[in-house]
Amino acid sequence: MLAKKKKVNKNNVIAIVSVIALLLGVVGWICYINATNYVATIKGEKITVDEFKFFIGSTMVEMEQNANVDRTSESALKAFWDTKIEGMDAREYAKQQALKSAKEYKIQLIKAKEKGLKLNKEEIEETKAILNQIKQEMAANYGGDAKGEEAFKKDYNIGYDKYEKILRNLRLIYKYVEQELPTFDVTETEMEEYYKESPNTVDKVKVRRIMFATMNLNTQKEYTAQEKEEIKDKAKKVLERIKAGEDSEKLALEYSDDPSVQENKGLFEVTAQTVSTIPGYKEWVLDHKPGDADLLESDIAYFVLKVESRTTYDEVKDAVKEAVQTKKYLERLEKWANDSEFNVIKNDSIYNKTYIKK
């Protein structure tokens, strides 16, 4: 007797086909994501879109600061980015520099992983603390958490969540560099020559800063042109009194508009790592010796400055040694970057679509 054909449930067939279609869709989506989430590869390691966007942002901020561009002015920013640098469109130049930075970042990550380095619990907590500090500073400067992150995204093209992963990678690189620096031998002659040529990279300078505000610091309302001239004359007179030998601390306590002057008495420490919004402030301080005084101008104030003290070679020898070791490490990093082993293979379809909007 012939066996009866089993009746197929139409609904089951539809369900199975739907599941297969869904799975194929998911696989296709994963393949699409994998093909579009990176800008380039180095030795099989991907430079992700997020990483590249971050390095573009970092490069642009650095370029704007180095050029003393008023970053609060859209017209000033546009004028800067419409120029050419080394015969190249400024935006394309920034992209190429960002790719170079991303390459060095990735090479060092590869080296750290080859050495078997990983972050321990304490180091992971360090990165979280750094991120929280950044969040707090951005919130304080821009009026709340949301506005702070928005400003961060505007500069660095990614939010805090994506930046945290990059921050962990940077901490791993720092751990690798910490272990590598002591492997470089340094002579006393090398240290002395380095300090003679580049004291500003290691010295600590104490400077007295007396602020003469050209706006109401509470309302942010600018004073009139005539009022600003009167304030400038006042600042000049205080500068002359300092040059004549009067006590700069007493003058700071008497005249400075800085809200923190009662706590710090106008005294600040400046190093190569100091970040300041006062144009030319760090450069002036690091280029001068104790006793030198001058007047600087910013968008919000005139500043009378006097260098109070500066470290000597003997006081910063340890920092000099580390600086020379760092120089040698960077020379080795440059050799790696020029080695064909670490050639960048661009994902052109994504690299070319990564635009700079300014």
From TrEMBL:
Residues 202-309 form the PpiC domain. InterPro entries: PPIase_dom_sf, PPIase_PpiC, PrsA_foldase, Trigger_fact/SurA_dom_sf. The chain crosses the membrane at residues 12-35. Gene3D superfamilies: 3.10.50.40. It comes from the Bacteria. Keywords: Coiled coil, Isomerase, Membrane, Rotamase, Transmembrane, Transmembrane helix. This is PPIC-type PPIASE family protein. GO terms for molecular function: peptidyl-prolyl cis-trans isomerase activity. Residues 95-141 form a coiled coil.
